[in-house]
Amino acid sequence: MKFVDETTIKVQAGKGGDGCLGFRREKYIPFGGPDGGDGGDGGSIYLVADTNINTLVDFRMRRQFKAANGEQGSGANCTGPAGDDIEIRVPIGTMVTDEDTDEIIGDMTTNGQRMLVAKGGFHGLGNTRFKSSVNRAPRKTTKGTPGDQRTLRLELKLLADVGLLGLPNAGKSTLIRSVSAARPRVADYPFTTLYPNLGVVSVHDYRSFVIADIPGIIEGAADGAGLGIQFLKHVSRTRILLHLVDIGSVESAEQAIADIRTIENELVKYNEELGGRERWLVLTKTDLLLDEEIDERRDQIQHALDWQGPLYTVAAISKQGTRQLTFDLMEVIESVSKLREESSRLEEKYRPIDPVDKEASEDDLLVESEPELNGDESKEQTGDEHN
Asked: What are the chain's domains?
């Protein structure tokens, strides 16, 4: 299946049905009065997030969606049928933008999420609506309003916990094959990966995370070299970035350092926020080196870059070092999730009180009153006052 992550579609909601001009005409009822019904509302168009869809390839063949119009009202105060709504299913992670105004309409992030993108037209009013004590036979009606019409840009950004970065043949696909059930193509030539791949890493029972592999980035990718940097958007939502660097098949540590700086420069050109995000450095293909060479190159890289973040050495094809890497990733992901849940809970607990709610809560407060005195106590108190 071809991977498509961008497309443009046109949506047009249905027009509202016109109101009816009618009068009641029956035997022995000479002045039946108006009985024209309202028209039906036009159909609306919704986007629905669906976990069973992975790409936007379905929109290559169909790009226009038009909802049904509402029907006209009829006599006997009958309202016209409303137009049927349309639900367009899209993958989770789809960002919806208005093509004409560049306004971001919304982001489809959860399964079953429903978003209105084109509202149907409002129904017209029949002449029954306009009758009054001074106008008992109105001939006024209104027409239904047209529905919304938009050109939408759909952009898919994969939702993953961990994103892989690196030059071509840095070992990204091999790593994702090693730690998950994903099976991307692996070969000894550049650009083996032509589109992003997702894999689920199961660390323990009920403990897992999603990892994303994107095509390799080369120098000049920001200017369109290679496959460009169009796939970097798929790692823009990840919590952790793994920067994979090949130290086994390069001639020296200086070459690996240059490769690292190449990726850093391309990240900054694409998005400064993404370039400044915390990254974990993973040195790959260590099975091609001796233990002494691994330590030497790791120290040279760490010293040259003044690297203060996490640093790992792995040989994905033999799974050396991958287990510790996945366990540490799981620990960080779970801690971040707990912090977000705690932050959301505190925000909900200490959110500002709406003025209406505040007045209601003040009215509901119990005011302590003075205790009532029984009969004897009241007599004693009265007697003391007279004395």
From this structure: 6-156 (2.70.210.12), 162-341 (3.40.50.300)
